[in-house]
């Protein structure tokens, strides 16, 4: 059966005559309507630069898009945008993910999280003092990593990295207390931190009408700590296990660590200085907005049936 004329096809299909003529010419010359190999716009990142990107990531999967762009400029003489690099890496099946460094939630944990969220859904959080501790280390802290298996990516911490531990407390009035340290915290040291950095500040903000939030770390729940808390804190709030996502300070840690990473401290003294400065730079409005998110966090936990929430 021969090929019909362009006008006949146009009459039957209403496809533009120019389009039909172009396709018929391709069919006669190539024997197919498929695009020939090599047709279309060339990739901005060629095979050689693509291999270089893979090598960069295998050497250091914490490398950022801006750092990759700089490496391509310096080593491959190629200037491309970070969005182009991101799209290319996704074509290579790389995902940019956060390491899995939080404990798994058991069915019992999830049930207790839901019950806690229902219990505190309509709380007035204005008189709650939130507390938390975090560790800062030289070079990188909360870092996204490139991985072809993001669900299996584990947080790897080099043992020889110098670290600074930080305890902070916040309330609807803003900052309450701050303390940085490098020694190991036990119950005695935790009580000392609360004595020197929490009690007088909380009383100044709330008189004696406030409640303390803390997680279930063993040193927070030891008999010695609980005895001291009972004598010095008006109300101790119950808290569900394995639930850092419910604490608004977690979001503040991310802000502080991101700012510090941009400043690239080169030694432990610089790291300490930057931590202190960035804590002071946290705006009061940021803290208030985070605390005002508590009702929504509770709603999300209830809706997700106790699963970890992305906040």
TrEMBL record:
<dbReference type="GO" id="GO:0015074">
    <property type="term" value="P:DNA integration"/>
</dbReference>
<dbReference type="GO" id="GO:0006313">
    <property type="term" value="P:DNA transposition"/>
</dbReference>
<feature type="domain" description="Tc1-like transposase DDE">
    <location>
        <begin position="128"/>
        <end position="272"/>
    </location>
</feature>
<dbReference type="InterPro" id="IPR047655">
    <property type="entry name" value="Transpos_IS630-like"/>
</dbReference>
<dbReference type="Pfam" id="PF13358">
    <property type="entry name" value="DDE_3"/>
</dbReference>
<dbReference type="InterPro" id="IPR038717">
    <property type="entry name" value="Tc1-like_DDE_dom"/>
</dbReference>
<protein>
    <recommendedName>
        <fullName>Transposase</fullName>
    </recommendedName>
</protein>
<dbReference type="InterPro" id="IPR002492">
    <property type="entry name" value="Transposase_Tc1-like"/>
</dbReference>
<dbReference type="GO" id="GO:0003677">
    <property type="term" value="F:DNA binding"/>
</dbReference>
<dbReference type="InterPro" id="IPR009057">
    <property type="entry name" value="Homeodomain-like_sf"/>
</dbReference>
<dbReference type="Pfam" id="PF01498">
    <property type="entry name" value="HTH_Tnp_Tc3_2"/>
</dbReference>
<feature type="domain" description="Transposase Tc1-like">
    <location>
        <begin position="51"/>
        <end position="122"/>
    </location>
</feature>
<dbReference type="InterPro" id="IPR036397">
    <property type="entry name" value="RNaseH_sf"/>
</dbReference>
